[in-house]
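Example for tutorial group B:
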């Protein structure tokens, strides 16, 4: 049987997981020029979650300063706040790091490859 501390810990982990999922999708939608803000119906299609569950997570993220709410009722949409944008970027970079790795030459002026060639690069080529 789970203790109150374990249940709270599980709930907090679930909230963190949903925060990253939602912020990542909103960041991607905006970054690809698809849309600046999204409704529960749009996000639900990407995230595969029930509307009431998603609404609760969106409201929590709004209260925590990650999102801005536009409108009310069924037409409500959400967009990243400045803080949410920073976190969304972090999530996106983390999730796709293996696919969008730094290419040789983008590592910076202090990298040993500048003197010793690509094989000496501290950052593996993509």
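The residue assignment follows.
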């Amino acid at each position: 049987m789970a203790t109150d501390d374990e249940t709270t810990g599980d709930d907090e982990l679930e909230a963190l997981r949903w925060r990253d999922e939602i912020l990542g999708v909103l960041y991607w939608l905006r970054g690809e020029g698809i849309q600046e803000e999204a409704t529960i119906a749009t996000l639900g299609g990407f995230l595969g979650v029930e509307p009431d569950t998603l609404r609760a997570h969106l409201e929590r993220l709004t209260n925590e300063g990650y999102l801005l709410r536009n409108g009310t009722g069924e037409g409500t949409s959400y967009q990243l706040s400045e803080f949410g944008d920073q976190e969304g970027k972090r999530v996106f970079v983390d999730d796709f790091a293996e696919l969008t790795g730094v290419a040789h030459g983008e590592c910076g002026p202090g990298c040993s490859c500048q003197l010793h060639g690509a094989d000496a690069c501290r950052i593996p080529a993509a």
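The longest strand covers residues 67-70. Compare this with the pattern of hydrophobic and polar residues in the output above.
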